[in-house]
Structure formats: structure tokens, C-alpha cells
């Protein structure tokens, strides 16, 4: 009996992420130094940990409602109002999810049908397309490489028109993984002017909103386009809480009433003790990201200086904690092979640009969510590798 032929055929479109493939391919290298993960090297703030411990001791271990603790939804609503000038009713417009990943899954499952298309500026985080594929849709990438990875209103509108009635949603991610690109208020306003002319959803992944380095506050497209926007965020990056798995969806009540259906049958509700930790983070840790942000800027600037001296072309990232660097001319442009050789020669792991789609080939991604000590050593090894015959 071969039941493998009876799986959902949409799974045939999905492969194991190249990030995981690459990680597995170099995992046998002793003592390898990794600048790969999108995970802060900082620890969760002590006051957040204490709040979760107190919740456990108080036996707060039962289900919350499907939408999550009302107190947490209120704190989340207050947080985005204070930080980003957004107005959401905690009773009807906010859902607590199992990380931003489940927030994206619940949103895409709720809106995508067979034959629908979704626009995605590229290169992009590889976690969106598989969800769309699983529910019978398809992702259409907007190539931003010729414009330093910056989407323009003209590029956006041209892509929308080309898709016609098949288009169901646009995914925006900013600050962006892997490029670190983010957008000014004027740019966001211009996107909103385009998008409001079309009956499509805007799924805006703003999980890196607290990690922007322009000196200006992050601007959410939900401020200008609230009726179309499904805003996805979470506490993984802002509060170093990746393993706590707390995400958030903000959307108008008429949309949230539908999104809760997919959310409910995926997970029932987020983990109760983690929600109490998140409540503390959003209520009393509104600026917990500031020390991390300061450290990330120093790390970013150090890496940029060292890699530029080695001939890498780098667009200055204004958010998140990644550098997306073009492999210099004269070197192997196959990013997977290039980094395989680097890992084998110098025991350092970075992520191939090809992991972020066809428009990422020829680039490499470095995560600076690692200690300066590790970063300094990695840059020494990279310089040594670039001078060796193996790099060519």
C-alpha cells in the first residue's frame, strides 16, 4: 500500500526550504560559526520572564478565548496606537496567534482560493509562498533588484494590472527580510494611493517594526489603508521572544470575524502562560527593543565596512538585522556553492541568496543577530577566504 499518492497534490509544489537544506549540508562541520538565524542573541527581558513564571504559579494554565486574553489584546491595541498611530478595538479587531507565522497562515488560508494569485516584492522571505501553494494559489514575484530592492508605486500598479481579476492579495514585508529595506511615510502613502483603487487584501508583515534605524518612526500601511490591511506582527524580534511564539493580527472587525475561523481550527488559542508574558512585554516593556537596536546598528556598520573592503556590494539596510550582499564579480555567483566552500574552508555559515527566490541568486545573507565577538571572527575568516583559491 502506497499512501504517498494520496497526499494533497499541492504539497508537490513545496520543497524543504533552501535555508534548511543548506544548514543540513554544513551541519557536520565541527564548531561551525553561524550567522544564519533570524533570532536575536539577546535574552527575553527579566520582567517578561517573571510575569510568565507568576502566571504558572497562579495556575493560569487553562485555555484563553480563541482571540487571546482580552487584557493582552488591549495592551496590543494600546501599543500600536502609541507607536504607530493605529486604532483597533481589542474586542473585535485583534487576534493573538502562535507567532507571526501562524498569523500569516491563518490569514492566507482565510482569503486564498484555487487559482488566486498573490503579489510579493522579491527577493523575499521564503515562508510566504508555501502557504499560498498549499491552498491552491500562486505567488507572482515583483523583481526589485534593479531598484536596490525598493518597491515603487509604479512597479506595484503595473503588477496589479497584469494580474487582473486573479489577484487576491499583496504581501508587504518591511523592514524586509532579507534586504533590510524599509519605507518612509511618503512611500507608504504612495503605496496606499495605488492599493485603494483595487479590491484586494494587503497582508503587511511588520514583525521588524521596532528594529528600524532611519531615525524616523516606523509607518504602518494600516494607518492609511485600514479597511484593506491585515497587519501581522509579533514579539519575537522586538522583545527577543522567538520561542514564546506570540504573534498578532490586527484587522477591521469585518475581516477579523472571518480570520478567526481559520485561526481557531489551526490552533484553538495561543499558549496561556506565554500570553501573560506578552502582556507584560507590551504593557511595561514598550521600549525593550532600544538596547537591541543600538547594538544592531553597531554590528551592521562593522559588517558593512569589512565586507565593502572585500568588494561586496551592499545596499545599506535600514531595518531588521540582515545584510544582503552581492558576491563580487570574478567569484562564484552560485550562492549555494560559494557558501558551501566558505563553510568547508573556514567553518562559517551564512545563507545563500537563492534561498530567497530567483532574484536572490548571486547574493548572500548575513544575520547580525549574533554577538560582536562572533561577527568579528566571521569577518576575519571571510577576508581570509576571499583571498584563497577556493573562493573562485
UniProtKB/TrEMBL annotation:
User: Which Enzyme Commission numbers does its entry carry?
Assistant: 2.6.1.-
**Can you provide one Gene Ontology molecular function annotated for this UniProt record?**
transaminase activity
Occurrences of domain Aminotransferase class I/classII large (ranges): 32-382
Q: Which key words tag this protein in UniProt?
A: Aminotransferase, Pyridoxal phosphate, Transferase
Q: Which InterPro entries does UniProt cross-reference here?
A: Aminotransferase_I/II_large, AspAT/PAT-like, NHTrfase_class1_PyrdxlP-BS, PyrdxlP-dep_Trfase, PyrdxlP-dep_Trfase_major, PyrdxlP-dep_Trfase_small
Locate the transmembrane regions by residue number.
Answer: none
State the Gene Ontology BP annotations. Answer: amino acid metabolic process
Pfam family name, one: Aminotran_1_2
Q: Which cofactor does it need?
A: pyridoxal 5'-phosphate
The UniProt similarity line reads: Belongs to the class-I pyridoxal-phosphate-dependent aminotransferase family.
What name is this protein filed under?
A: Aminotransferase
Gene assigned in the entry: patA
